[in-house]
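Field log, afternoon session.

UNIT: design team B
ACTIVITY: writing a sequence onto a fixed backbone
BACKBONE:
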């Protein structure tokens, strides 16, 4: 399949720059695959669209504030330090934004009088080993305090005086986030509220959790002509034994497994056998789902609206089919749905 299958543009004013006033007041497009129908509802209607005995599988990764707006020591030029993960001591793996041709040993000045950072060693893909001029615990505390949330590039924020910084810390995080390690949010989960959970409970709709730490590769655009040639990024996952058991029990009882977001889908499809039963455990997945992929564990999918030249829209197309996916996206544009991370949601039903 060609990577330009979905060759359309999303009007800039439909790219959500801030979240909905309330999480569950986002709009919800409901697409039924077999009937080919589309309904326009709100997210708080979700419980009424599911059946007793269905199981929602959600990604409980937690996004860490990791974007530091720094300056080059000596010149004062702006440089972004994007912290990916802790290595050891005061050393971290990081990206340096648009700063190119950096010699090892280069120095960066942190914001908020945080001192300095040394770029120790460059690795593949522009990743750096960087060392903070402070003790390990102090470095971690500084990052948690001073860093901003790692919003995707299509959400525009001021580098220094960001009026939305506090809002992003709250809303670019699911209410059930538990296991820190992601540098991007599992955005289909952003719409859930305690009230929606209560409504799901009252209808005897169950929940279980997996963890997939969303990495920076999730924003990598498709650059190859054919999908089969795209080098899919790898992400770490964990599937608890109780989640695997809940999926198996749901199947035995005739319920549906409803994946919340592409990350939950990717995790379950990676670890499930031909019967659709997942194996518990941890690992890394580079699974790329696109038509004509045969789903093993996914019976329905809740997702946001994705970039037209992304791997994520092809996962939706693998479920709904290319033509119904294209029709749904054109209707979303016509009805002025909000797109991408802070945007509205789509429920894909059989």
């Amino acid at each position: 399949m060609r990577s330009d299958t979905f060759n359309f543009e999303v009007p800039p004013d439909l790219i959500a720059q801030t979240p909905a006033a309330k999480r569950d007041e986002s709009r919800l497009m409901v697409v039924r695959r077999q009937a080919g129908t589309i309904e326009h509802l709100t997210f708080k209607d979700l419980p009424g669209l599911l059946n007793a005995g269905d199981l929602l599988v959600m990604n409980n990764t937690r996004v860490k504030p990791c974007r530091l707006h720094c300056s080059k020591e000596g010149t004062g030029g702006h440089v972004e330090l994007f912290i990916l993960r802790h290595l050891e001591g005061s050393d971290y793996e990081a990206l340096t934004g648009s700063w190119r041709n950096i010699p090892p040993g280069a120095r960066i000045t942190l914001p908020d009088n945080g001192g300095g950072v040394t770029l120790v060693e460059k690795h593949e893909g522009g990743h750096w080993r960087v060392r903070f001029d402070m003790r390990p615990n102090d470095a971690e505390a500084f990052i948690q305090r001073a860093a901003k949330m790692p919003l995707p590039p299509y959400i525009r924020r001021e580098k220094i005086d960001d009026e939305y910084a506090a809002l992003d810390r709250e809303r670019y995080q699911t209410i059930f986030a538990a296991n820190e390690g992601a540098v991007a949010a599992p955005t289909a989960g952003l719409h859930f509220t305690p009230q929606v959970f209560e409504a799901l409970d009252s209808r005897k709709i169950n929940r279980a959790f997996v963890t997939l730490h969303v990495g920076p590769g999730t924003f990598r655009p498709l650059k190859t002509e054919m999908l089969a040639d795209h080098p899919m990024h790898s992400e770490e996952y964990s599937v608890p034994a109780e989640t695997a058991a809940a999926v198996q029990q749901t199947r035995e009882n005739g319920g549906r497994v409803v994946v919340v977001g592409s990350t939950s889908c990717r995790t379950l499809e990676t670890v499930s056998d031909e019967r659709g039963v997942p194996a518990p455990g941890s690992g890394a997945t580079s699974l790329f789902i696109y038509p004509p992929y045969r789903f093993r564990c996914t019976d329905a999918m809740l997702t946001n609206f994705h970039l037209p030249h992304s791997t994520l829209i092809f996962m939706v197309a693998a479920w709904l089919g290319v033509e119904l996916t294209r029709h749904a996206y054109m209707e979303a544009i016509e009805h002025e749905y909000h797109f991408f991370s802070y945007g509205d949601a789509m429920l894909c039903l059989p």
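LOG NOTE: The chain has a mean pLDDT of 95.
NEXT ACTIVITY: expression trials, pending approval
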